[in-house]
Design goal:
The complex is a heterodimer of chains A (195) and B (109).
Chain A lengths: L20 H8 L3 H23 L2 H17 L10 H20 L17 H14 L4 H12 L4 H8 L3 H19 L11
Helix pairs in contact in A: 1-2, 2-3, 2-4, 3-4, 4-7, 5-8, 6-7, 6-8, 7-8
Chain B lengths: L2 H8 L5 H19 L14 H21 L16 E7 L5 E7 L5
Antiparallel strand pairs in B: 1-2
Classes of the chains: A mainly alpha (195), B alpha+beta (109).
Amino acid sequence: MATALTIMAQPARPVAEAPPEELILAARDGHRPSLEELLTSIERRVYALAYRLTGNRAAAEDLSQEALLKVCRHIGRYRTGSSFWGWVYRIVVNQARDNYRKAKPEVGEPSELAVEPDVDPVRGEQLRLVMRAMSCLTGRERAALVLIDIEGYSGREAAAVLGCLAITARTRAAQARKKVRRVLSRHYPELREDR
Amino acid sequence: MSDEQLNKLLSVLPADDAVAAAAARSRRKALARLDEPLRSRPRRFLAWAPGLAVAALVLIVAGAVQLLRSPAPPAASPPERVSAERLQMHWVLSDGTRVHWTFTKDFNL
């Protein structure tokens, strides 16, 4: 049965402004209030990325907690002048990969994840279907799709985060897009690609 | 449907306040863990110590067993008595015959 697709209006990809350099430097120098302010300024984006990589709130909270802790412990390794968000995202993606290896979930078929109900039933349903579709991706495909298609990273930027070649990142994102489109088109026929 | 529209669908997240609350919880927990004393963290490098001790013990035991099994070296035969004037040699043949040789310093019998 065809389902009317209501695309939740999403704002255009906001330019991810890095926190002020002086805040990062103060945090790196051990100034605790600056460190806490730094974490507060990045926590939402970190959580959003963690949610997209894991697909449910509990796993996303665990992942973002681990990632923020690593940001605190390794802030000294951040090189001024380099992409701060690229450095943070690399921490999140690597931690997600470590968690993924430990959990070893079955990949290939969409699974029903414990997506919490939303106050908005339409968004809740879309969330459930999207996360279900993304559960059929490998960890690498999912990360590439999130960075390139959702976060708006270029192939080169995504490759720097993922630790692979740009063409590899783009290929994985394209494969992932094809897979999720196929799964989502069962509920949203308008997503089907014309052959 | 275009990729752009698909991307909009894929970018769906829970409600803003739910995201904000969960993100704040993660931050608080991360900061709490940062303040944990260092010694409460598991010291992973000691995990291999028992294995190393067992391996060393096995090597020591194997070495000791090898030493015990190897045959004793042959006892050195007593040197022949040699005087400044004469050289004496004593043979015992397989039939029990004893032969004594005595040489002068010029190797005459």
